[in-house]
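hi support,

uploading two proteins for the ticket. first:
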Amino acid sequence: MGHRHSRAESSQVSRSRPGASFDNTSRSDSSNKAEPSTPSVKVKFPFRCEDRSKIPDELLEGPFDDFQIAEDVYATFYLLARNATPEMYSISPFRNPDVRIAWLYLLFIAGSQIFVIAAITVLYPPTVQQETAFVNCQNVTAVAALRVRGFLEAATAEACEAAWNGKFEADVRGRTVMMSQISHATEFYHLVFASGNYVILILRLVCCTWVFSEVYLQEFSSVRALLRYHDFSRWFLPLKGEVVRNSWAICVPMIQYIVLMCVTTVSFLVICAFDEPFDIVMNSLAFTFIAEVGSFFNEPLVSRMAATAVQGLPAEYDEIKYLYPEYRLSNAIREDGTYTDQGWYICDDEEKAGLLSDYRVRHNEDAYPQPHKRTAKILEILIFVLPPLCVLVGALHSRCRKEGCDLTSVGGKSEL
C-alpha cells in the first residue's frame, strides 16, 4: 500500500519512515545502500517484532496463505485509489498532478476497450455475407421479394431506386428494361450458426475456448483477486490504525468485469457467425488481445508511480513512494535493522497477516468477513452462462430471420 510504517510509529521513532523509497535509498545516499540487516530482531515467535504488544492478535490467526493481485492497469489504479488518504495524498486529478497519469491510463484502457466493442457491434458491425441482386424497380412483385429478403427497407420503387449501386439496360422477353444492381450485406448477429459444416463447428468451439480461457483464467481472476483484496483491506486497515476510505474503488474491478463480459459475449457471437476458418481464428486472436490489453500498459505506469515520491507529507515523514510493487526486506525493516511493528508490510518468513508487496498479500481468509466472496461467485456464474446464452439467442434469431418462426410454437415455421 502507500506507506510502509504507520503514522503512530513514525512519530514515536525519530525520523523513521512511514515509507522508504522503492529502491531502499535514503536522502543522503541514494545509490549504495544495501538491504537492511536484522540484528535487533530476536526470533521468539513465528513472526518478527520489537514489541509484542504492538502486534494485534487478529493478525496472528493462522493458517496463512498468499494471494497475488494481477499486475494490470485496473489493479494499479485500484491500489492508488484505495490507499489515498487526506494525510497522504489525494486521488483527485485536479488536486494531485502526480495521479493524473494513473487516471489517463485507466480512462484510455477502459475507454479504448469499450470503444472497440461499440465500434464493431453498433457503429460498423462486420458483415458475414455480401449478396447482389438485379431487379427492375418498376416490377412490384420483384421489389416485394427483395424486401422480404432484406435488400430493401420498403417494397416501393422509390426505395429500390435509392438503393441501387448501378444500372444497365437488359432485353427481357423482347422488351428493353432498366435493371438495377442492389447489394445487401448481412451483419454477423443475423447469421449466428447459420452455416458451416462439422469442421467449422469444431473450429468455432476451439476458438471460443481460447477466448474464454484467457478471459476466465487470467482477466476474471484479476477481478476476483481485487474483490478479495477489498475485503482484506477493510479488515486490515483498522487494525493498523487507519480509517477505511475510498470504498468507491470497488467500482474499478466492476468496470473491468463489465468490459470482460462484453468482450466475451461479442467474441462468441462473431466467431459463431463467420464460416471461413481464417476469419474465425483471426477474430479469436483479436478478441484475446482486447481482453488482455490492460496488462501490456501496466509496467510503465507501475515504474512511474514506484519512482514518484508523495509530495507535501508531514515533517516527521521521510520520503514515501506511491507504490511498492516488489517484495523487499526494506519494506518492513528500517535501515538500522529494527523491525516496524506497526507497519503494513511483513517479511516472507513471518506467519502473520500483512503485505509482502502492494500486489501480494498474506492472510487467513477465515479470520475476517468476506462479503464480496458471494459477489465473486455470482459474477463467475454469469460469465459462464451469459455468453453461451447470447449465442443461443443469436442462433434462434438467425434461424427465424432466415426461415420464419411461428411465435406460438417453439421451433415452428410460420406462413409469413
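and the second one:
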Amino acid sequence: MRTIGAMNLAQVAACFALVYNSITPAAFWSVNNFLMTGPKAFLTYSSSVAAGAESGIDECKHQFTWDRWNCPESALQLSTHNGLRSATRETSFVHAISSAGVMYTLTRNCSMGDFDNCGCDESRSGEAGGRGWVWGGCSDNVEFGERISKQFVDALETGQDSRAAMNLHNNEAGRRAVRETMKRSCKCHGVSGSCSIQTCWLQLADFREIGNFLKVKHEQAAKIDLEKRRMRGGNSADNRAAIADAFRAVPRTELVYLEDSPDYCVRNATLGLQGTEGRECLQSGKNLSQWERRSCRRLCGECGLRPEERDSETISSCNCKFHWCCTVKCEQCKQIVTKHYCSRRERNRPFNNKRKHRAQNW
C-alpha cells in the first residue's frame, strides 16, 4: 500500500481541504466520492480525518457557545485559498482545535487497531519509568497520529507569507496540546494485591480536556506585530526570513495571531458575523459556571443590548406506564420554558464593550 509520504503534496492538500470543507451536514459524506478515485492511502485514513475535523468543529462550538464569537460557519474554512484570510485570535483557535481533532482521532483509531499498519506504542515497554513502576500495556500511538495528521493538515498551507506561517504555528500548537494533556494510567501487580510494582502506559485525555486546554491558550494568545520588524515588500527571501524569526520567538505550544479581532457585538455581513442580537444567554439554572452566569452581561449588556425574557411552550411525553402486554402509553405534558435573548434597548444607553485577554506582543 502507498504511504501518505509518497503522495503528491497537492493531492494531500486537496484531499484534506475537501474533507474539512465537506463537514457541513448537506455535503459531509460527499468526500467519499472523491476519495474513491484517489490513491488507496486516502481511503485508509479518510474517515478518521473527517471524524477528527468534525470533532474539532463540535468542540469549537462548545467552547464558544456563550461567547460573542461562537465559532460560526463562516470561520470553519481552514485553507487560506478558500477565503479565510483573517489572522485573528479566533482563527488561531480554529486551526489548533482542528489539527488536534485530526491527530486525536487518528491516534485513537490506530491504538484500537483500525489500521493495518499501526497499533499500540510499545517502544518503551519493559523500561523503568520511575520508582515502583515500569512502562508496559498499550500506550496510545501519538507518534503515528501526529505524523499523519501533520501531512494532511499542514499540506493546506502552500504559501510562505505571514498568515501561512501563523496557521502552521497554530496547527503545531494544537498537536502539542494532544501530547501535553495525555495521562498516565497504571495497573498494580504484586502478591495479594500489594501493588509492589505497577505497569503504566500513556492514554489520550478526553477531547473536552484538550478543548479546555486550548481555550486557555486562546485567551493567552500572543500577537505578533510584524510592523515593528523590518519587512520588505513582496515575498523576498529576506522577508521570509524575518517572518520565520518572528514566529520562532514564540514557543510552539502557544497560539499566535496577527490581527485584532473585529467587534463581534455587531452584525458584519462582509465578515460573515451575525452579531449578538437575538442570541440566547443564561441568567439562571442549575450547575452553571461563572462564565455561563455572566453570558447575558457579556452578550447583551456589554454590546448595548438588553436580555429579554421569552416564554415558550414545549410538549413532551410524560407519566409513561407499561400495559400488559406489551405496550407503553404516555401522556402529553405541556411545560412553559423561560429563556433570555439579547434585544435592542428602548433607549440608547452607554455601555462598556471591553474584551479582557491576557496577551502579550511579540
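thanks. also noticed: Residues 280-343 form a domain with the Endo-n-acetylneuraminidase fold fold (CATH 3.30.2460.20).
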